[in-house]
């Protein structure tokens, strides 16, 4: 224990002497947590719409007003033909083309049906899918309003009407930052813990102090713990700062137990720090360690369910995602902060994180080559 305390004293002194590390630990997560949730928004607005109205009737004008007043679309051009509107998409001036055919009002009144054409620029898949869905919904609502005008108030004649009302549990207003802030906090904790621990042992190699440590009576487990504990404590401090920002800036207050949240964060930090130290034991210099850590953290981020649902991934990708510690922590943070889940509900994920922590740290200790 005395040797471990000396190692911890050395690590803290070395850490606080380097101002760049302190800025990386405290300033970077704070700035990113203030900026990233504002940009990570799935609610697509200001979709550029090109209109081709061949009918020029009161019905087509009313439909156009409904679309432009929805707040999602911005009319960028009224073209005389579909080919002319298509040029606007090719020039990246428009995202969607709506073509209203001749006889639009007449066919609606006489025959009760009429088709319109919607062409969507699908280069940006998310914008295309959501924009097309928004436009389809607005046209469908307009169609319902027209039918209501014809049939008058009251139940439709001979028709069964089903009205669906959606309620957002745990996020009533459907605000995306409420969903994204907890996950981004986990990502920042991963970046701080993973990168800094990956560079730690390699830094000793580059400075030449690793040889002095190798010939000392320090055991391998003491060396690894001495490298891990300072970053583990700083990681919990960063996590606390992130929770305070989430509460003060975004108004997100954890519904569940803070004790359960910190317990999971503590176990997760042991796992991710062990992963970083494992990379450090294999690397010969800081540049190599940084690129290896960046490679794995990019995979962790894209396959963890941060931006896309795990259910939409193929079977092999879901299996791989479950082998990533970040996946389980993002799920648990959202469950505890937004849903109020307790320790019993997240015990399975806690077991996974504990297993990751044991395996990764044992591997790092065994792989650290100490010569005497």
Overview of this protein structure:
- Keywords: Cell membrane, Membrane, Transmembrane, Transmembrane helix, Transport.
- This is ABC transporter permease.
- Belongs to the ABC-2 integral membrane protein family.
- It holds the Pfam family ABC2_membrane_3.
- Its main location: membrane.
- The structure is a single chain.
- The chain has 372 residues and is an alpha/beta fold.
- The chain has two domains: 2-40 and 175-367, no CATH class; 47-151, 3-Layer(aba) Sandwich (abc type-2 transporter like fold), CATH 3.40.1710.
- Helix content is 66%, strand content 6%.
- The chain has helices at 2-17, 19-39, 58-68, 82-90, 104-110, 125-151, 176-207, 209-214, 220-248, 258-282, 286-303, 315-321, 325-339, 347-367, and strands at 47-53, 73-79, 96-100, 117-120.
- The chain has a four-stranded mixed β-sheet, sandwiched between helices.
- Helix 3 (58-68) links the parallel strand 1 and strand 2.
- Helix 7 (176-207) packs antiparallel against helix 11 and helix 10 (258-282) runs parallel beside helix 14.
- The longest helix has 32 residues, at 176-207.
- It is elongated and about 95 Å long.
- The mean pLDDT is 84.
